[in-house]
Amino acid sequence: MYSYEELESGVIQAGVCTGCGACISACPLYYIQLIDGMPRRPKKRAACKNCGTCFNSCYKVKGESYGDNTGRYLRAVSAKWDHGTQCQDGGIVTAILRYAYEMKLIDGAVLTCRDNNSWMPVPCVAKSADDFDASSKTKFGVSPVLMDLRPAVVEHGLNKLCVVGTPCHIQSLRHLQRSNADVSSAVALTIGLFCSGNLEYRHIAERIHTLGIRPEDVEKLAVSNGRFIIKAGDRSESIPLSEIKSWVPGHCSFCRDYTGELADISIGSEGSPEGWSTVIIRTEKGEEIFSGLEKSTAVSVSGIGSAELERLKRASEAKRNSQNSYVI
Ligand code: SF4
Ligand code: SF4
Ligand code: SF4
């Protein structure tokens, strides 16, 4: 039987681990921890049951699944939350979380928060509207969101969770559900965030420092028109993405999902005007929640032009075709 050793050699040391955190949640004995950004089984070698659960929980072992272009969907719109002035790109993720929570369709969420005053991304469990608001705004850096799945269920007692993450998190979560991993049945909704590639946080922190900006003064990090933007007060610094290719983690070169094809709802800025988000509603569950939110009149919604949709499909296709493949 394959076990942690094979996960370590075949995925982690092979450089294809995306740091999704699923194997950390999968180990029922909490033997796997996040150390230096990677899942590790420290000092527990003798105690490890060699049950293979961690190996089997890894979506990189069993393979990812993709549809055509942007994946299957029911409809796609542009939207913004009318009360989301403090949020980024329309605040639609926060609006959906707040609505689903209010309607008791979810009882919490696992997503990415900021570490204290910095912009370092850390996974967190959100259990209130205030928590959802606090987790808004785009963060860059590897965030092992799924490592908080087990604590959300076992320690916080949640059983109708929303998982918000990049396509790698959603691919991984769907693999957990297909494998009937115990904690995965507590997930009621998934929101996938468009992602063409991540940036390692340590490089961002270094650049913020070099620019003489205090991390607590940074108001927004974003990628727009081929540039990485750092906004702090009156300052807006932008760096061409071509200059920071080395900031992209190596594992992103194996990823072929741009829009979060397996999510209930996918959200990103591509295809919509500044201040709005593109929302791809993919499943009945996603439709139920988004159409409920629309009726609540808390959001403005408009159609997406065929040219914008075509651009989104081309971006998805480009990512699909340009990446490496890896089979363990
Ligand atoms: S006990 Fe099982 S799931 Fe946990 S580290 Fe060992 S093999 Fe992996
Ligand atoms: S489950 Fe996720 S975090 Fe664990 S080894 Fe696989 S890709 Fe890495
Ligand atoms: S490019 Fe893929 S692996 Fe990298 S952060 Fe985005 S979704 Fe995850």
Automatic annotation (TrEMBL):
Membrane-crossing residue ranges in chain numbering: 12-35
Enzyme class: oxidoreductase
Domain of life of the organism encoding this protein: Archaea
Domain 4Fe-4S ferredoxin-type intervals: 8-37
Keywords, ordered alphabetically: Membrane, Oxidoreductase, Transmembrane, Transmembrane helix
Descriptive protein name: Coenzyme F420-reducing hydrogenase, beta subunit
Keyword ATP-binding listed: no
Gene Ontology terms for molecular function: coenzyme F420 hydrogenase activity; oxidoreductase activity, acting on CH or CH2 groups, with an iron-sulfur protein as acceptor
InterPro entries reported for this sequence: 4Fe4S_Fe-S-bd, 4Fe4S_Fe_S_CS, Co_F420_Hydgase/DH_bsu_N, FRHB/FDHB/HCAR-like, FrhB_FdhB_C
Gene3D superfamilies named in the record: 3.30.70.20
E.C. designation(s): 1.12.98.1
Keyword flag Cytoplasm: no
